[in-house]
Design goal:
Shape: globular
Order of helices and strands: EHEHEEEEEHEHEEEEEE
CATH superfamily: Endonuclease/exonuclease/phosphatase
Number of strands: 14
Structural class: alpha+beta
InterPro entries: Endo/exonu/phosph_ase_sf, Endo/exonuclease/phosphatase, TDP2-like
Protein name: Endonuclease/exonuclease/phosphatase domain-containing protein
Keywords: DNA damage, DNA repair, Hydrolase, Magnesium, Metal-binding, Nuclease
CATH class: Alpha Beta
Strand order of the largest sheet: 3-4-2-1-14-11
Number of domains: 1
Helix content: 10-25%
Domain Endonuclease/exonuclease/phosphatase: 11-252
CATH topology: Deoxyribonuclease I, Chain A
Number of helices: 4
Strand content: 25-35%
CATH architecture: 4-Layer Sandwich
Radius of gyration: 17 Å
Distance between the termini: 18 Å
Largest sheet: 6 strands, mixed
Organism: Rugosimonospora africana
Length: 261
Amino acid sequence: MTGAPTPLRLLTFNTLFKGDVRARLRVLGAILERERYDLVCLQEVMYRRNARLLRRVAGAAYPYRAFTGAVALRGGLMLLSRWPIRRCVFTRFAMTGPARPELLMRKGAQVAVVALPGADCAVVNTHLSANRDGDWSPANRYTRVQRGELDRLGALLSAIDPRLPLIVMGDFNLPRSSRVLAEFAAAQSLADTMNGSREPTYRPTPQFPSPPAFDHVLLRSAPAGDLKPRARLVFQDAVTLPDGRSAYLSDHYGIETELLR
């Protein structure tokens, strides 16, 4: 008896660390519990108490979780999984100038191996430094910071078993058109699951009416076979908070990706 293959469902989402954080996380947790993604990479969860909140609300759907930190989460990163996480290591990016409050977030990358049905998979959750100048040209001071972080990330990816499929998700704070991002992806043989899309992943505002796509899902198939991605933006509409108010889940949209063999 045969049937259609079941897709692997992924989500990456920057949850926004300020504002009505816990109210929004309660709503997000309920959505995650209902959707039951296979893997969820979250950024800006920030505090262990927020990770505990997500675990209470969505924990039944994601029995396996990875985050580190006694009070503040390292990098603000949290990985949720329906499948066993064999190992997960957080690596912090180097702290380099310009000086900025963002350095308190201790940004970096989680590198995990997850035991998916049928095969292991390497999963990387990351959040790079923001470009405060809004200038992503190679010579910009923040672009140089981001290049250094991508170099460190590339070194981490190079140490992953090449026989494993690799998924790299997160808020790169670099536009899809960025030369620095393109060079990184090419060097690591990573394909953008939303390649060609002109949709922003940051919510437009009057001050920033035409933002680019900062969030990305990058994929490297294992030698044994190709993975065919289908990706779309989610969490674009307002939600109802527990007290009845209407709000957006974040200043970012999420990227939902389905992978088929």
